[in-house]
Amino acid sequence: MKKKINVGLVGVGRLGKMYAGFLAQRVPQARVVAYADIIPERASTAAEEYGEARWYDNHHDLNNDPEVEAVIVTATTQSHKEIIIDAAAAGKAVFSEKPLTLNLADAREIERAVEKAGIFFQMGYMRRFDKGFAAAKQKIDEGVVGIPVTFRGSSRDPYRPSLDYLKPENSGGQILDMAIHDIDIARWYMGEVATVYSMGTVLAYPEIKEVNDTDNVIMALRFESGALGEIDISRNGVYGYDIRAEVLGSQGTVMAGYLRDTPIQVMTKAGVTHDVVPYFPERFGEAYVTQLNDFLTNLSAGLEPMIKLEDGIKALQIGTAATWSLHHDQIARVKDF
């Protein structure tokens, strides 16, 4: 049996609550010894619900808890830099949810701190741990579809978040908030991105104009290999949570993703129907669990993680270039950012 690792969870909001449940019930190697959240009730509730654990109203106390060996960061993105740098200074291993930060300057400051401290760091992009997305990657690597020629990624949320969340200073803007996973998968399947051109506007929710964001964006990519790509993201996929990726190769195509949640279909005189995936917890719950188990396995065995800090920075670099293109109506060279 693998040795348990003492974990501290920073951020017990929507995603953090999911992680707390996973760590307590489905990640055998984890022993959560502390929770932290700037809203104390969140941390205290998690500590009470999931067994005997301490709770704090700030990350600094958790990072400096001598019993904590690894810190998992599911706090708001704008707080990532301070939390990660503090954890690195305390010598803790770190797992961070996406995106790494909201800007490249902060990301590179994190990189310097992590390298200086020499800690173990793993970035969170759960789609790589989804069975379908992982199987597609394997087919591409095996050459089943030949030379990758074009990539298509699509992410459609079933409803919009709150306007406060959508403020770019909170979310980073629609591209960083929604497309960062598609960008990571594009890199994973196709290699590095050379240029990006973004078009976007408000089409479905007029109130989003109040916070200077968009609800629909299309991004055109050119990869360093010369291959082409397209990513479309939408806040108004009102029919369900629709996440897909496709690679067209010289010898065929491979597609990942699905919309139907339960594998049944009802056929009556009124028509043919099936259900749909409601939202990300249902669609990627298993991938989140696999990702957390992978983090602790890599940490305990001294293995190199599949998703490194560099991957977080490169995805953010592409997202930053794409956001710049959106606002300037110009093609952006990724290496300029």
CATH class of the largest domain: Alpha Beta
What is the CATH fold-level name of the largest domain?
Answer: Dihydrodipicolinate Reductase, domain 2
Number of strands: 15
Sequence of secondary-structure elements: EHEHEHEHEHEHEHHHEEEEEEEHHE
Helical content class: 25-40%
Count, helices = 11
How far apart the termini lie comes to: 46 Å
The best one-word shape is: globular
Question: How many distinct domains?
Answer: 2
Radius of gyration: 20 Å
Write out the CATH superfamily name of the largest domain: Dihydrodipicolinate Reductase, domain 2
Strand order of the largest sheet: 12-11-7-10-9-8-15
> What is the arithmetic mean of pLDDT?
97
- Going by CATH, the architecture of the largest domain would be 2-Layer Sandwich
Strand-residue proportion? 15-25%
Structural class: alpha/beta
Question: Low-confidence spans: pLDDT under 50, at least 5 residues?
Answer: none
| Most strands sheet | 7 strands, mixed
